[in-house]
Amino acid sequence: MAQAFDASAQQALLTHRAEGALAMAKRLGADAAEVGASVDQGIGVSVRQGEVETVELSRDQGIAITVYIGQRKGSASSSDASEASLQATVEKALSIARYTGEDPAAGLADAALMATDLPDLHVHHPWDLTTDQAIELALNCEQAGREVSGITQSDGASLSSGEGVRIYANSHGFIGTQKGSRHSLSCMLIAEDDKGMQRDMDYTSARDPRELADPATVGREAARRTLRRLGAKRPPTGTYPVLFDPSMASGLVGHLMGALAGGALYRQASFLCDRLNTPLFPDWFNLEERPMEVGATASSPFDGEGVQTRNNRFIEHGKIASYMLSSYSARRLGMTTTGNAGGARNMRITAPLSTQASLLEQMGTGVWVTELMGQGINGVTGDYSRGAAGFWVEKGVVQYPIEEFTIASNLERMFADLIGVGDDIDRRGSIHSGSWLIEGMTIAGH
């Protein structure tokens, strides 16, 4: 990287700024205040057809200040680290608060809930990577894919590596800081036959660069995934079982968590309002978050309000066991925060697991979805309709690739009709999931 990143020095600097902002807010008339600040540095390169396309060196910083005057709230932010800018930001937040209506739910999270267990979760693994080394890794990845017979073009390979520091502090006296890193490598390739062109990709992502997949492996997997899509047809229209590939199943968990989020619930904009302790999934299905998991993608000992994070079981034996609440949404609902300001962290499924082959066998005749397009999800009703691509399956055996079709159902029905979860777990993101087999969905093909 162009400039060394001293994470410990940045932690000390951000702490100093946050303490200064809190003191300034109090001096200027705030009853309470909270500060979030971060600084990040990274490198990103992209190559295409064996040539370097882009090289980006980035360094970003920001600070956001929220003040409370009684139960009036004002927020302002800046990317300027100067003392004058800090004062102007605090003054702007106070000005906004003075013109804002009172909100009975506004305010800091309760002081008694502030995190006290702040271990090092080993999420900071900087990569001493030069620009030339980054380019070489991306080129090797792309070249491995392009060398596979049948690949006609490349849509490029990209490598990104970054690290940063974030801090949250409030006038309860809480200060939490965390260093983190994220590294990834991806490749997208193109193949063509007499029916047209197809493209697909593969990627690897980790906090620790030593856990990334080998570049050549990523390139060859991108090629395999691309070639298997050649000769795609449209499937027949009807109602069939659907097997969601692991990365697609993770999206279903994301839709579930959106419906369990306090913001949607207090606005009455979720199909899961007033559903605590009611069945949603089969009784063998459990879903929880593990925010203190060492080295994981989204680990943090404190949430976006400084509240101690904890393992939360959202689905237990198929029933909705908990909502996902910040302090604000909890107050609006007459409940208690679940330590989820900023969302859920490290979602994990506990269920009997089956091989993908056995799930295909259970499916019999149906659709295996490997790609989804569009945003056809209605969070209020749970209605689900999206464009898709994948494979047609008969008697448990993949027959041919399919494209240009839609799958439709309702999320509540889909969750209830979950037949099995695969052991082919995708661990590259915050949500770890294997394949999901859903009993029946409407397929609109030809």
Strand content is: 35-45%
Mean pLDDT: 96
Largest sheet: 6 strands, antiparallel
Structural class: alpha+beta
Overall number of strands: 18
Distance N to C terminus: 52 Å
Low-confidence stretches: none
Radius of gyration: 24 Å
State the share of residues found in helices, binned by percent.
10-25%
What name does the CATH topology of the largest domain carry?
Answer: PmbA/TldD fold
Second-tier CATH architecture of the largest domain: 2-Layer Sandwich
Q: State the CATH class of the largest domain.
A: Alpha Beta
Oligomerization: single chain
Give, in order, the helices and strands: HEEEHHEEEHEHHEEEHEEHEEEHEEE
Strands across the major sheet, in which order? 3-2-1-4-5-6
Can you identify the CATH superfamily of the largest domain? PmbA/TldD superfamily
- Tell me the overall shape: globular
What count of structural domains? 2
DSSP summary: helix tally: 9
Describe the structure.
With 446 residues, the protein is of the alpha+beta class. It folds into 2 domains: 7-227, PmbA/TldD fold (2-Layer Sandwich); 238-251 and 351-444, no CATH class. Helix content is 24%, strand content 37%. The chain contains 9 helices and 18 strands. The chain has helices at 7-27, 83-98, 131-146, 215-227, 246-260, 262-266, 327-333, 356-363, 411-416; strands at 32-48, 51-69, 72-78, 151-170, 175-193, 196-206, 238-244, 286-289, 312-316, 319-320, 347-350, 353-354, 366-373, 383-394, 397-410, 418-422, 431-432, 436-444. It has a 6-stranded antiparallel sheet with strand order 3-2-1-4-5-6. A 5-stranded mixed β-barrel has the order 7-13-14-15-18. β14 (383-394) and β15 (397-410) form a beta hairpin. The longest helix has 21 residues, at 7-27. The chain is globular. The N and C termini lie far apart (52 Å). The mean pLDDT is 96. Residues 237-445 form the Metalloprotease TldD/E C-terminal domain. Belongs to the peptidase U62 family. GO terms for molecular function: metallopeptidase activity.
